[in-house]
Amino acid sequence: MAGGRKTRERPNILITGTPGTGKTTTAAALAEATNLRHINVGDLVKQKNLHDGWDDEFDCYVINEDLVCDELEDLMEEGGNVVDHHSCDFFPERWFDHVVVLQTDNTVLYDRLAKRGYTGKKLSNNIECEIFQVLLEEAKESYKEDIVVALRSDCIDDINNNVSTLTDWVSNWSSNF
User: Fold this and answer.
1) The whole model's pTM is what?
2) C-alpha triplet 137, 177, 135: angle, nearest 5°
3) Of 50, 91, 115, 130, which has fewest CB within 10 angstroms of its CB?
């Protein structure tokens, strides 16, 4: 049980994982199925300029974690959010009732990232993160282990099964509140 749960009527769920594991697809489907608010942190960073500039080497924004947390604080305290981001160690532990780490077979992930135009260091870095389960370890180090779950996300059937499992979890959370 996360620290802030008792003050919220709806749970907060973090969906994390290496880019290309299906975070946004899963989070959007889960939010729709449960009537929770989907927050895509990458989109939020772009829309609200919550970054410190552009990283040419990795072809992405350098997010300002403090600005992101400040922007999300009230929404997270309110509850009812599915947050979607590839990193999780900078969010306050009290925000989340469930942390989901999506994992994808390296061959499937490679193909997905290559189709997105990932090349060179950006591609190899993300594949290495998946191989060494960096995001799963980051989640386990950042949150109570009993709220962290790893789910396979290789194909659309996996995503549908994950959404179904997580929808059940949300229903049970609500009924036990």
Assistant:
1) 0.94
2) 10
3) 115
Q: What is the DSSP string of 26-59?
A: HHHHHHHHHTPEEEEHHHHHHHHT-EEEEETTTT
Name the DSSP letter for residue 20: T
DSSP string covering 119-168, please? Answer: -HHHHHHHHHHHHTTHHHHHHHHHS-GGGEEEEE-SSHHHHHHHHHHHHH
Neighbours of 109 (CB within 10 A): 26
Per the rule left: phi > 0, alpha: psi between -120 and 50, beta: everything else, 100 is: beta
